């Protein structure tokens, strides 16, 4: 079933994100994670695109095939375009067709100094238009509740998102955030802008100090006082920080569900314990 159709049948939708294992590890090593995630009955699992813009060595499609055909769960395949030509994208789309995978998260991708960017696609909206012309795929997109780090302001960011939705995006997944009010404000802004597609709230449980510092640098998420206070109190106690991070994420999700969000997308970091702990905490709510 295509991703956007799931929101017509069920609300809220629950999904997870995983990433392909590193090249020096066999893809079979992720089976333990997938086995546990499948028991949690997600509506779909998204698979990130391999780092570095590599096409030949990318394991994303192989992992998506495993999710679909071995575990019986619909995969959502991330597809970045900044470092790919139209020919390479066509090859990937054909590979997805052959695997009977029809849901794509269309992304620009981050610039990689080690890989020269191609000229065929400049923005995610360019990729969306290309996929729309190429075949009958379900296309999802990313959104930023607190503004993309490269946008000048929120007005410009919403305008770019509107272009992406108008190009053919049928479902949005948000970047991680720690302030639910920022997400609710974002929901109002996209409604005013005329975007009426389901939006999943992206939640990443913080379980170590290095993780939060890295992610905030990359995505620009703000840190509410409550969150900062909890993290600072337990930052030197690994076990306590894990419990505090999980509790914060669960409380976020409870509040989001009370506000009738379209769905919850959990960034699992390939850690099935994280996903299971959260699902146990909200099992009677979703």
Describe this entry's structure for a reader.
The protein is an alpha/beta fold. It is built from 11 helices and 8 strands. The protein has an 8-stranded parallel barrel, surrounded by 5 helices. Strand 5 (138-143), helix 6 and strand 6 (171-174) form a beta-alpha-beta unit. It is globular, with a radius of gyration of 18 Å.
Task: Detail the topology: elements first, then pairings.
Layout: H1 3-9, E1 13-18, H2 31-39, E2 44-47, H3 60-69, E3 75-80, H4 86-98, E4 103-107, H5 124-134, E5 138-143, H6 154-167, E6 171-174, H7 180-192, E7 199-203, H8 209-219, H9 225-234, H10 238-258, E8 263-267, H11 272-282
Parallel strand pairs: 1-2, 1-8, 2-3, 3-4, 4-5, 5-6, 6-7, 7-8
Helix pairs in contact: 5-6, 9-10, 10-11
Family: Belongs to the methylenetetrahydrofolate reductase family.
Cofactor: FAD
Keywords: Amino-acid biosynthesis, FAD, Flavoprotein, Methionine biosynthesis, NAD, Oxidoreductase
Average residue pLDDT: 90
In what range is the share of β-strand residues?
Answer: 5-15%
Coarse shape: globular
**What Rg, in angstroms, do the CA atoms define?**
18 Å
Separation, N- and C-terminal Cα atoms? 20 Å
Structural class: alpha/beta
Major sheet strand order: 1-2-3-4-5-6-7-8
Main sheet overview: 8 strands, parallel, barrel
Low-confidence segments, given as residue ranges, are: none
What's the helix count? Answer: 11
Reading the helices and strands in chain order gives: HEHEHEHEHEHEHEHHHEH
Approximate helicity band: 40-55%
* Strand tally: 8
């Amino acid at each position: 079933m295509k991703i956007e159709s799931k929101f017509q049948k069920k609300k809220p939708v629950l999904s997870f994100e995983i990433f392909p294992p590193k090249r020096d590890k066999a893809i079979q090593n992720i089976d333990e994670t997938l086995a546990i995630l499948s028991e949690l009955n997600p509506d779909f699992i998204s698979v990130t695109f391999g780092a570095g813009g590599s096409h030949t060595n990318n394991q994303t499609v192989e992992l998506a095939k495993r999710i679909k055909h071995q575990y019986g769960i619909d995969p959502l395949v991330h597809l970045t375009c900044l470092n790919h030509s139209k020919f390479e994208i066509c090859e990937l789309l054909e590979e997805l067709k052959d695997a009977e995978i029809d849901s794509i998260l269309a992304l620009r991708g981050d610039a990689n100094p080690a890989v020269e960017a191609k000229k065929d696609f400049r923005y995610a909206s360019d990729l969306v238009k290309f996929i729309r012309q190429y075949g009958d795929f379900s296309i999802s997109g990313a959104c930023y509740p607190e503004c993309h780090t490269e946008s000048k302001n929120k007005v410009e960011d919403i305008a770019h998102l509107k272009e992406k939705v108008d190009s053919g995006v049928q479902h949005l997944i948000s970047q991680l955030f720690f302030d639910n009010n920022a997400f609710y404000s974002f929901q109002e802004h996209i409604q005013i802008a005329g975007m009426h597609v389901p939006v999943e709230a992206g939640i990443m449980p913080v379980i170590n100090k290095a993780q939060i510092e890295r992610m905030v640098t990359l995505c620009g998420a703000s840190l509410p006082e409550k969150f900062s206070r909890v993290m600072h109190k337990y930052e030197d106690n690994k076990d306590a920080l894990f419990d505090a991070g999980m509790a914060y994420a669960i409380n976020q999700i409870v509040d989001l569900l009370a506000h009738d969000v379209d769905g919850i997308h959990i960034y699992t970091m390939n850690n099935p314990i994280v996903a299971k702990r959260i699902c146990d905490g909200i099992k009677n709510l979703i």
